[in-house]
Amino acid sequence: MSRKERIYEFMQQKDYLPLRLEELVAVLDVPLEDIGLLEEILNELIQEGKIIQTKKKRFAPVESVGLITGRFQGHERGFGFVLAEPTDLFIPADAQMGALHGDLVLAKVTKASGKREGEIVKILEHTNHIVIGTFEQFKNHGFLIPDDKRISKDIYLAKSDQAEAKDGQKVVVEITEFHNSKRNPEGKIIEVLGYPSEHDTFIRSALRRFGIRDTFSENVTNSPIPSVVSETELQNRKDFRNKLVLTIDGDDAKDFDDAISLEKNEDGTYLLGVHIADVSHYVTPDSPLDKEAYQRGTSVYLVDRVIPMLPENLSNGICSLKPNVDRLTLSIEMTIDQKGTVKEYNIVPAVIHSKYRMTYHNVTKTLEDPDYHEYDHLRKHFHLMEELAEILRRKRIRRGSLDFDFPEAKILLDKKGKPTSIEKYEITISNHIIEEFMLLANETVAEHVFWLGVPLMYRVHETPTSEKMEQFAKMAKHFGYSLKGAADPHPRALQEILNACKGKREERILSTMMLRSLMKAEYKGENLGHFGLAAKFYCHFTSPIRRYPDLIVHRVLKELLKGNMSEYRKEYWKKFIDNAAGQCSETERNAEEIEREIDDIKKAEYMQQFIGDSFEGTISSITSFGMFVELDNTVEGLVRLISLEQDDFRYIEEQMMLLGYRTGKTYRIGDVVQVRLIDAKPALRQIDFVIEEEEKSEN
Q: Residue 86's CB: how many other CB atoms inside 10 A?
């Protein structure tokens, strides 16, 4: 425990009374030469919002004087919340002291009964120093209208701070003055992104807002990276170059993390090799490449581009497991019996020479189309892969692994970036083959390291709370399904419901509500298991080109293989992983959010050409303000409650439905409805429908 932690723990004791500096010096027996250090620690605790110095110069924990520390979450309507335990604190618009969304604040509770309410008394840390939005120009000044509607205040821009931006353009603004109360923050334009009508503008705006850079600094791009594997690099590596090793990826993939080899032994067991790019050989700790990869955390896959975690000469070059060239790997060979149990395994640094670059499309076609002959010589091999994958899948499902079936979108663009079509992304047998092999490798590696007592970056999916599970059980019961052990169910019990409702009207609502009831998977240094996979041990090992957690796992494994894992190194890895887990989880969330945002923009842009047209869709979600309807191509739009004018519709939360009080008409998730598109706004990522039958009945 650090000195700061000990001091804070001392102040949190029940019998602690607020003390002055000189009193703390005496009570804590602080040497004269360390008084300055004590003052620094106290100031740090104040800045972190953990303690406060009263008007009488006494130091006390904030909670002891009725204050709360938390992040301010703004709302486009002006009010906001301080996110804190046990419940969030509502902050009216006139009680925010100029706080912006994301700021770390100190708040006072003004109403404790019922819905907790409060006011912000101090801003501890401003988060939004850079804001993206639309420039509005006036005669002698201008304003930035933030894209993030949770920032409810516009940013004032003096004429000298407008960088020749034109009215209506998207710009990047640096806030130069944060003001409290009624004054708007002030800033200056540091980058002009372009007009919203230009294809790249929305994407560049989103990248800037999430702090994602689409270029690398010179010290990263200039890092010396070999283009071929040398003979000296092959020492102490297992040689798989004579084996039938191949990759199976999407048609557009260039960064091949993983390759597969598979044989069937005479005793009926399978010898599966999962060969993963040895990125850690090229990206060494604390190098410019490593620091950049750590900050990025993950590659970001947008509709028209990839923002890689590593520069192209690595991600698409020497690390990518291309065919017909030698590549370094960290490989795991597993002997698997007919029940899908791993009987033996071996993790080794290796070298491979991939024989084929296969795609999901041509593998599936080889397996399913007898008239497709391009890979006839591999057909038997692919069927062996299919055979093993099915054994592994059946075992995984039997133990309770959850298998959701939500469609993904594939958005096609023309050369100018305009969306030309939106299709459902087809998940094929070859996708499932690779998924099962990667899942098994990840589980095996996680369990291997766990039993050695060595720290590891785990991919955890915690058990859902009993409260959420009991709420879901009530919903399921309404449709005639019983959840075994509702307060603390085994994932198998949830999978049984998914199986039972498959293909039925209520499948969508039950799948949606089940997913919302689960925790979000994240990275942690503690093995908490993976509820969704019903796995006791799980990590990410198979994608080090595009995920930093996998790179950490590789480094730990290689230290173990070299016999270098001393107690000192274990302590180092524990601290490093504990710190890195939050960073990796946050960058993953950012990547998912921006990917979803760009998809929504392109979907709205695509649908603009169909305004006025009618479509058949399925209700995908019900809220207090309306219902979302999803079309067959995965496009989702909102039918607002106020547009349902033929009855007084009310939101029945317990049953997730809209009920017409006069007619008894209901709308539920999974209902098929006819809708008409009335608006599509890419800038707002918004698509608006009306129910076609409602409109017809008005005429």
A: 5
